[in-house]
Design brief:
This protein is an alpha+beta fold. The chain has 8 helices and 13 strands. The chain is elongated and about 105 Å long.
Length: about 350
């Protein structure tokens, strides 16, 4: 049905003038051609058609809300290892497919609902207006506010409550899709970063031989890397735990140890320090036996292992944590507790 088929008295009144039509001539070759006659939509003429459009828009917004709920449910319920066969894609991750489909449907329905609302229910009367100066006099400001009020009225957001409420629901619910993704940041660390696998009685195990160490196995000037007893490379959390518990053992003549606490926590000149650099967490692997300096190969932070592993060069901000060690009844080196401060890059400055 078009406006030509409707009696003149049933057509909506024009809301704005289209401007005068100009005729091009020698003086004004770019005259304003004016606007074509406005063609009324079926929704402007038939309230039943407008109601159908309103229900269609509300349906799209409702589908968006359901898709958002489906996104959250899929994220929580579907296992990351599950796969499904989707023709013609083949075997793909069920979680990725569900998240992509639900998120895509949610976004599409919000956009489609907004477009359908604008094209069928909002006013589509063309308005021609002379361009005004950049500055806004009071009367222009008043007109802008009046136009805004007219636009709000023409959008029918106050009258079409079903459209308005479902749109607000879809827009309010959709951001929850991003909120639930925060779960992938993992659980709160609690005190995990403050403790390692070292505890009283844990044997120092050589990383190369996988055997417990005796004092006689550590020569003066040597560098040995150790791990806690019971931690094996095939353990699922090996990388996580060794990143905190990796230890380096050096033997220094007791007379050359300058720090009193370091000497007390050592055994016959054998000292144990964290292998994790306090700059950005790189593993320290270089040792100069004449100066007793340990060097991080990443950014050249240098630590004096004869003087409490204090920083003497480079960007590291703190000394390496020392592990207190002793010897058990069987003659093996053992830890006498955990590190007294968290290992790694300046953690204690952050809490």
């Amino acid at each position: 049905m078009s406006s030509q088929d409707i009696p003149e008295e049933n057509l909506p009144a024009e809301q704005d003038a289209h401007g005068e039509v100009g005729v091009a001539d020698d003086k004004d070759p770019f005259a304003d051609p004016g606007l074509p006659p406005h063609e009324h939509r079926i929704q402007d003429i038939d309230e039943r058609a407008a109601k159908r459009s309103e229900r269609a828009v509300a349906f799209l917004f409702t589908v968006s809300m359901l898709a958002t709920v489906g996104f959250i449910a899929s994220y929580v319920a579907i296992d990351t290892d599950k796969s499904v066969y989707i023709f013609p894609l083949g075997h793909i991750s069920a979680l990725n497919f569900a998240l992509g489909m639900t998120l895509g449907v949610s976004l599409f329905c919000i956009g489609a609902g907004a477009v359908h609302w604008a094209r069928t229910l909002m006013s589509d009367v063309e308005v021609a207006e002379e361009r005004h100066a950049v500055q806004s006099p009071p009367e222009v400001k008043a007109k802008v506010l009046a136009d805004f009020a007219d636009g709000a009225k023409e959008s029918a957001i106050g009258r079409r409550k079903l459209v308005r409420n479902t749109m607000f629901g879809a827009l309010a619910l959709f951001p929850l899709s991003g909120v639930v993704l925060l779960r992938d940041l993992g659980p709160l660390p609690g005190t995990k970063l403050r403790h390692t696998l070292w505890s009283k009685g844990k044997l120092l195990v050589n990383m190369n031989t996988n055997e417990p160490l005796r004092p006689s196995d550590v020569a003066v000037g040597s560098l040995t890397f150790c791990k806690p007893e019971g931690l094996e490379e095939h353990d699922h959390d090996f990388q996580t735990e060794i990143a905190k518990a990796a230890l380096m053992i050096v033997r220094i003549q007791p007379d050359n140890i300058k720090d009193k606490r370091e000497l007390e926590w050592s055994h016959e000149g054998i000292v144990a320090y964290s292998k994790i650099c306090t700059h950005v967490g790189c593993p320290i692997s270089l040792y100069e036996q004449q100066t007793h300096h340990a060097l991080c190969p990443c950014h050249q932070s240098t630590f004096d292992l004869s003087d409490g592993a204090r920083v003497i060069f480079g960007p590291a901000g703190h000394a390496l944590p020392q592990l207190r060690i002793g010897v058990n009844d069987e003659g093996y080196l053992e830890a006498l507790g955990d590190f007294e401060e968290p290992v790694g890059p300046a953690f204690w400055e952050r809490g």
